[in-house]
Batch of 3 targets.
Target 1
Amino acid sequence: MQQQEIHNFLLQYFEANDCPILENKPGYLTVQLTIELDKELMNRPFYWHYLEKTGGTPNPMQLTLITNQKEAPDSLKGEIIHFGSPRLHQIFASSKKLARYIRLYENHQQQQRQTALLPWLCLNVKISYQCDRKRDEFKSIGLQLINGAMVEDFHDRLLKIPLTPKIPDYSFTLSPLVKPKSGMLRIEKFLKSEILKEDHSWAEEAKQRWEKDLRLLDHFYEDIEEENESYETEKKALQDQYEPKINISFLNGGLFYLTEKAI
Amino acid sequence: MSIEIEFDSSWQDDFLHRIDEDGPWGNWELYKLSIEVEKHLVIPEFEGLQAPKHLPHLTPLPHQLETAKQVIENMNGKAILADEVGLGKTIEAGLILKEYMIRGLVKKVLILVPASLVTQWGQELNSKFFIPAVTQKKSYVWEQCDVVVSSIDTAKRTPHRDLIYQQDYDLIIIDEAHKLKNNKTKNYEFVQNLKKKFCLLLTATPIQNRVEEIFNLVSLLKPGHLGSETSFYEKYKRDSRSLNDNEHLKELVNKVMIRNRRADTGIEWTKRHVKTIPIEFSKAERELYEAICQLKNEGDWLQANAFSVMTLQREACSSREAVFYTLKNMLQRKENPSQTFQQQIEYLIAMVEAVQQNSKAEKVLELIRNINDKVIIFTEYRATQLFLQWYLKQNGITSVPFRGGFKRGKKDWMRELFQKHAQVLIATEAGGEGINLQFCHHIINFDLPWNPMKLEQRIGRIHRLGQENDVKIYNFAIKNTVEEHILKLLYEKIDLFERVIGELDDILTKLEFGNIEDHLIDIFSGSSSEGEMRIKMENLSSMIEFAENLRKGDSHAAAGNS
């Protein structure tokens, strides 16, 4: 992420959370936090607890974030934000937490005609391939809940469609034939079968490394006859270190009602 | 092949509940943002380092980056980091830790370091690496904090020990790991029983160790890498120092160890300037020293107390206080001291009392006034340290003491006091390790340690990365004493002081004759005459020279082959 991207991201995050932007200049921005966001980000539970007990006037904080030290005025006081800064990662985590589930309708332009909207289930996931090393992949899967069509890169397609949280006039939604719960199962199965088709030499190699170290370990302890606790600990440590695993973790997802031709 | 695929479905009920209840639903802008974020945070490759992208204020040196990559990609996260002193092992460990944390391979981390370095490690991880490391102060920290820095001595004690064993650590980092060379110690046992998924052992002095010590260190990291104990000692002699001569063993060790040398890094270092300051005893001091030397000729002392005599000799070159303290101890410790013994000691004490001045201290005062900048004084003796502190104060010079025995907080405080308020830091031997004082560039060796590595460590406190000035080293030696012999015949002959960091341990490893200190003690206590001693010292320094030439020959040969 470049500094400019970080700047834009922060701006969008605070705007999406209804925080007034007090200043937005090259290199920095100052925002007035809402009560909700103060609680979310500023880590001062005692203040809020105290305030609620005493019934005082809430005074959420202002936050100045410097995204480019060269452009921001020297005298400016604020937090310097870069890709590794803990504040940015806190805001990353917050943005994920605040929008896990969603439901939207296509804001289509056929205003005079009754239009049917088809239900889609979308799951965005991260697939992690892990042994003593790790890599991830982002996947976005859409499942049409009428005919069971499965679409990859679903999120990118959604970005091209106008969407609204309220159902537009003259529109009606079709009831899903596939229940969301079994839709989730289908997506899970689909992801797993896709993964199994991939090349897993990374896992083979990890297993070989594991077995090699295990042989060394056995050799080390072969003189010692009785049950040995540290042997068991070491063995477990090798398993934790090398055992290949694939994790599919959920990022966010939702229901989307779209016109027939949208996807 | 079969790989376990885990599908996180903890969110499903929550989602279905919202479908039933018709909300609440998230904001589309935030939803899009969080996907954008995720796409940035996803790491599509097994290889490569992500950490530098997260650390814009840190510019790691090429050898540090290379080391981090090696450890993660080729050593599977278990390594001995054995760079020469001052090349930034902490930075390497920090990079590796950060990389694993970014990739989500490591969450729970235990960092065991000498007590004097706990605060420094904590600060560096927080400020340089943005890793929320917590220094252990209360026992709840083990459970509640993910990254904990502690001293090994605290960690191994109850109740901490049991709490630590209950945690499931992903990475364990141990600084100054050469202290774990003996597998019979409590510390070794404690570390051995820790679960080590990923593990970094940091040490500056691995190859001066005997083969046995190497075996213990490597077996802690990766049991079996050098075979089982029996099979290992069938192949290699326990006290052999032949690591360098045994190519196979060396190769094996190098698979789990990275050692960057100063010469290979291409970093510009500031220079060392060394000055020997010869000092004349005053009459009373000389008399005391001679009286102590006389002890050697009395049969009674020679057998039982050769070591004590030598200690006293060395102490007499430092301060009368140091001599007095030892004499008093000798008297107290001896059960049923004989009349002669008692008289002997009392006679010496009387000699001590006759000494009215400290010639070295007078010189120190003069020197410090001339330098007019921050100075570190090293001495081997507590009593001398106390005396110097008093003496400097009498003469209007501010100083702070530093000892190995200080608690962590006190060490930090003393360092801070020295940096901000005092002109002089007076450290005893134990203070030589584990504190970084780059802001100072004058060292006075008030007396000299007999182990050259200790001296190297003293200098290493200030001559390291971050030192901007040339380093000035002043060696004090009293004329016509053991001290002068050591300085002349050993240190000056082998150019110890002018040497670049790390060369010395190379040379010492080449010599397969054991600990230098043992040899010196043998020479000084075992020699019946001055002449014999001189010859033995000559021999010793020739050996060192020989080893050095061997080493040079090696590198020529290597250059010729390439």
Target 2
Amino acid sequence: MPQVLLIEDHQTVRDGLQLALTRQGHTVVAVATGEQGLERLRTAASDVVVLDLMLPGMDGFEVCRRIRQQGDLPIIMLTARNDDMDVVAGLEAGADDYVVKPVQARVLEARIRAVLRRTGGDSRRPGPERPGLHQHGALTIDRAALVVSKDGAPVSLAPTELRLLLELAHTPGQVLSRQQLLEAVWEHGYLGDSRLVDACVQRLRAKIEDEPSAPVYIQTVRGFGYRFGPL
Amino acid sequence: MIRAGRRRTVSRRRAARMLLAGGLLLTVLTAGCGVRPSDVITGRAAVSGPSAGPGFYLISHGELTLVLRATKPSPGPSLPAATLALLAAGPTPSERSAGLSSEVPPDVAPATVTPSVDEPGITVTMSGAVLPLSTVAANQIICTVVFAVSGQGSAPVTLVGPDGTRPPWPCPLG
Amino acid sequence: MTPWHRARAMALGLRVRLLLAFALLGVTTTAVVASGSYFQARTVILQQAQDAAVASLTDQLSKVYPVASLPPTQEELDVLAQSLSDREVDTVVRYGELWSQRADAADIVTPELRQEVAGGRVAWQRVERYGTPVLLIGTQLRFERSDGTSVPSGVEVYSVRSLVTEQQSVDRLAGLAWVTGGLSLILAVLLALLAAQGVLRPVRELGRAARRLGEGDLSTRLTVRGVDELADVARTFNDTAGTLEHQVGELRRMEADARRFVADVSHELRTPLAAMTAVTDVLDEEADRLPGDAGQAARLVSQETQNLTQLVNDLIEVSRFDSGTARLALDDVDVAAAINATLRLRRWADRVQTDLPSGVIARLDPRRLDVIVANLVGNAFRHGTEPVSVRLRAEADWITIEVADQGPGLDPEVLPHVFDRFYKADTARTRSEGSGLGLAIAWENARLHRHAGQSGSLVAGNTPDCGAVFTLRLPRVAAETVDAGGVR
């Protein structure tokens, strides 16, 4: 039974989402502020965080960053439709996915399931699985244990970042378009937001590349998408 | 269209006027250059001066001509009378060869020259007849007298002879 | 304006006219002054020369007196003429038919001069001899009488004096006048250029400022210099521009207020809508289980909540265009695949005839392309008659997408308003068929894609065989949005 932490300051929205998600079979803990949410995470575990960006006191971006500092807990942002900059900033702060308010419960629920599938416990989905150790330059990818290490030192990756890396490393030297990656990693329909991919690539590069501005592992192929290597 | 046409005519007219003005200016400038021939300009009266001797009038080509002689006139009762004597004597050979002649008969001298009595002018009383004298001869005498008598520039001269008196007459020469 | 007209306009331009006027003024003034002083000087020079010559001649002649004998002999005449001649002066003496020797000068003695001399006065005349000007002086020799009158002696003296020296002086004067005229012309032209510069600079500035104002830069002002008429014009221009700026600013402020109000209302509506939308699924699920009216009411609330959400979303979208905060999220997209995905997602794939060549890759915002195509096809289904067709064509720099239906087409009166917000062609149309903003948003989305200064376009029209056709034109490679607020 996935445990969902819902951080939303408007009470009616909070109640409505809690009601709907609970009916979908989730255990929902709803809090009104970012501080309460972080406090809750310290005392009890959650599987996924649904986070409103517009919060009184500590805002959603800060909450996002703090959760990311502590671990790889999946985060789904609730954002207003007119705030493009918010989307980009939220993704840079480490969110895995976002939905635009007003959102129907079943849409949010589908995103929650998709993001949970990316986490280790629920990753037995069909896809580019080829168990075993793979060495790519200084990078070692253990597809069985879902552990990535660089020069022997383990690299801490959020679930979405890990899935993206696995997806790209599965076919080294082959270009994958953003839409392909969106469908494979985020399980979005055709018209996903390609900024999800770009933001995630940025975060991933910051963790595995020696020189994020001159990437070696995840290369941009202008006009097409991304490619792993060639090294 | 009409406006444009009118404007064009106006500007053309203005251009023509400017051309005309420029042309006029140039004509004046070029035509007025240098020293141009002129009309006759008259100044003061012609040069005049004294004569050294007695002068009397002879005829040259039918006209009265002043003749001066370098010789002093013989002393006599008066200068005009002496001059009249010279006139009556007629031209010298050299004068004659120069084409001078006289119609005055030798018998007019001697004569006396006096101011007229009851009118302005000069009266010449001669020895010979005065009525048969030709007009030219009379003029010779009148002008010679007028030239000789000072202060009587255009005074009429009355010739008196034994046969009568000619009416007063001025010298026709200016 | 033909090139000939432009050339004429330039030829008669202010600069040229000023130049001509100044040059004409300069030349005229110089000509008048120079020619005036030239003529004056020439008269003075000639008069002095003539007077001196006459004086010299009469002076010498007075030494002839007293005259001893008349008539003169040829020898006497020659001697007299000799004594009156020198290097510059050539003199002849005449007595009746008798002329002194070297009588060549006699040829040029004019009849009118002789007539004047015969009248008893000193007379002179300038004539031309062998191409050079000479001065001809003639006088009688007269005898003075004691009463002041004189009588002619019959002797006439004519002296010929060259005026070449005077001619040279006059020529020098003329040359000087020409040089002065030329210099003053140059000076006039220079002054004209300066004046033209002085007059034309403010005029040019005024022209530039007016153009800038016309192009919409209402903050344009001129620097007012001096107190002349041009300064007045500049001041008037500034006042006008100021008034204009103020009023336009006022209008813009009011419009912005109105738009901000719409945006604010939309945002305020979003929070309650978010709560309602969250539970529409619950309502839908429960509706079936609710008895009669309650179930119907639940479905109605759920449906209208979704419609209201759509309307508010559209309003927010429109207000983003108005405020210029709309941004493109560019991606390289296979256009045919994107259109197919749009149709597939809305389950229209079977109902639409497509002509979509594959392999057309464009760099654009796929979400906005989806919005445009969905709105156009949805509109065609609502107002046209099936079959609806979608056609893609690619050029070098642009792609064209045509959405056509087989309906009655668009009324010519409707055509200009198709993209207006909330425009209802059919007054009987009900609200539930769309927010009324779909085509307006599609239009704005098309314009947001820009390439090389040109923006994309969406045009409505009719096909030859009746039926509405919407033509979308987007750049092959859209520029990254810097600031592309669609202002209408």
Target 3
Amino acid sequence: MMPEPILDIQDLRTVFRIGGRDIAAVSDLELSIAPGETVALVGESGSGKSVTSLSVMGLLPKKVGRIASGTIRFRGKSGVTNDLAQMDGESLRRIRGNDIGMVFQEPMTSLNPVYTVGEQIAEPIRIHLGRSHKQAAEDAVKLLADVGIPDPARRARQYPHELSGGMRQRATIAMALACDPALLIADEPTTALDVTIQAQILELLAKVQAERGMAMLFVTHNLGVVAEIADRVAVMYAGRIVETGPVDQVFAHPRHPYTKGLLRSVPRLGEATALKRAGTPLPTIAGSVPSLANLPQGCSFAPRCPYAIDACAVAVPALVDAGEGQLSRCIRWQEL
Amino acid sequence: MTTFITRRLAIGLVMLLALSVLVFILLRLAPGDPIDAYVNPTSPLSPEAMQALRERLGLDAPLPVQYFGWLRTAITGDLGYSIQRVGVPVLPLVMERIGPTLLLMAAGLIIAIVVGVAGGIISAVRRNSPTDIGFSVVAFIGISSPAFLTALLGLYFFSVQLRWAPSGGMLTPGMGFSMSDLLAHLILPACLLSIGHAALIMRYMRASLLEVLNQDYVRTARAKGVREFFVIVKHAVRNALLPVITLIGSTIGIAVGGAIFIESVFNWPGMGLLLVNAVETRDYPVIMGATLVIGACVIVVNLLTDITYAAVDPRIQVA
């Protein structure tokens, strides 16, 4: 029996008002994360993965984006479960940075250039935990030490431009962890970093998660990163989850043609030379992602899918149980 | 920091020197001289007598001789004597006028900064709302109105018609000094002086804040649960102010021009009025002295702007 999830999203539909018309960036989204679990949300740009995390945070662009329907049940540190989709702005603000921490993609631009690193980490501690300036500043130094920054007292007094990219990302992680959140949302936290630094940041995230027993929603487009950090993975395509399941299971036996295509197009060590010798290019998925404003009838992936049949264009396939904890939104999953 | 200030002051001295050459040449290129202006047209002097006067004042000497003669005494701090007010030394004359001008300009600038920054923030936060559009229209009218027009219209409406404020001067004659009297005289010219600047600052502040509000660190602040008010005031405005500070620094020189108009209209006993009188009477030493003192003030204010900039933005190293 799975423990009661920390985050349980049901039937989420998030729309953007563009040119007088509501365009769904996320539809029929179901996702749950258990305490201490890491779930990776994978997809291409525009697949809706970042919109999903912004919907949870209540940070959709004002006036343009809104949650049209669905529930986002979240159990905070106090043990009380609330539906984030129904909460007003002020209640969401009390949850942000407190029960849910968030790490963003660009460490270069996600820190405010005119405040010291220490001040920026201390800020949520003062806001949510009501500590004094002095206490919060001391806590910030401890957090910097926790995320592996040497000489934390000196670094806390420095400004973001005095830190390297990797160190800034450590600082934003410290900021997200400041109030000991129940859930950490990491939106492409390693994408902007050098490969060697990526590995360090992944290691750090895994370490702090294990130490704190925190749940983590890890948004990325990098399948290699998913394999490294996540317990479960949800693959998104054109605003919908097309396949979800335990990482090992999904990687070994993809039950959706899109996942299969994605996995095939990841180059493996030595494979590139072999392919070159054989004269075949690296496999890709034919075609391109459809516009969200103009999705095809039925399965959004059908026009690019080598397995597509007439039945695919009739209706959007439901997420069906494919065994071993895997769910697939493909009507022909058994044949894959 | 000390090196920076010393270097800037040295550059400032060179600029003052260049300014003195420029003003000197421009004055001599203008038709007429102090003697023409001095002589009463109803009882004309003979050309010989005028020539004798020119010789006595050294106005017939070659220009370089005149300039270096002026410069030699100016370096010692002696800016010479007024030609029209016989026997009155220039330096004390200018120094007693600098106070009122600085007061008027400082008051105008403070009003412009407060109104401009606040208006810009409101406009940016309520982007495209009726408030924003209203502010924008007012700002464009403010930017496009020349100082002499706003000064005269302001004088007419607020002093003559509504009688809210005195129509001129700095203090009521015959009354002792009182702060309230000074403020009553100051408020209208200062407000009118601030209009153009407030409008310009408002536009810059709006544009700058709109750009900053799209920055990642503003989203980070929201993700931390910072109250929206502090997201704007603490995280966004301080960053948005940086280009506005540059703007304020660079428009102070222009503000001098506005102040001269306002001083003439409101009979404010400042540098502007002195300068206008001096230009009308071709009083060369006074014009030179007044422009140099104004130039020095602008240079010092620009230096202060750069220091402020460094204080607001930690990425700027003053060295």
